[in-house]
Amino acid sequence: MTSVAVVILTFNEQIHLARALASVRPFATEVFVIDSGSTDETVAIARAAGAQVLPHPFVNYAQQFQWGLDNAPISADWIMRLDADEVVEDDLAAEIKRRLDGLSPGITGVSLKRKHVFMGRWIKHGGRYPLTMLRIWRRGKGRIEQRWMDEHIVLDAGSSVTFDGGFADINLKDLTYFTDKHNKYATREAIDVLNTRYGLSETSEDNTVKGSSLAVAGKRWLKEQVYNRASMGAGPLLYFLYRYFVQAGFLDGPEGLIYHGLQGFWYRFLVAAKVAELDRELSPLTSRAERVNAVERLTGHRL
Asked: What is the DSSP letter of 123?
């Protein structure tokens, strides 16, 4: 059978990790947990399940994951990216075992259709299902984009296929965690917007996601070429209305109203507000070095 290495990033994920590890047990031949200093039982859970734990300080998701790819002793034919709060369902696990070995050499990646479960409800509308993401690739053929936010796996060669089995993001933490996480996401996404605007980082990716799924590439183009150019107020409001009414997010019930309202309007508005706040500081500056220093001082992130 084709061998598969699963790579998971963790920080205090004891509530999720055992579930994630159990879901990949039917097909994973290697599991690597890249931990950024957990103080709960995360590391013990990982080791008890047979995973290899590699500690490494966290800067951002992209750098942490690429460090794992570069430093974990991966020998498997294929690599899978899995978040600690994600679950591979039984039908997808069976599909991976059944189909992966038979893919032609020119197929170097596999995209999965991710579900999002929020407050116990599968969010099926508002453009949230399926979220098709490239998550499995042949060793040596893929890498992760070096971005501060919205980073995806991209292929350096070959093409991809899509598997249909169940793959779900089911975070068990509360709304306080959700809003705190998205507040941090908003800062990182604002850095990416300003990277594009001012060329702050020499390692930042361009606006394409070549080698990833067409859905991801299309959404990236719309966000960076259309949405990010809209006014601070109009963009988030129109995006929420489009998701909630045109894409039928209202069919997701009260949980959908909370989710689409927070993730589709509040979060997008917060990103736009942070971009405006940071840009007020950056626009009078004349050099890249001055702007980099300003972003690092204001956000606490080292570019």
From this structure: -
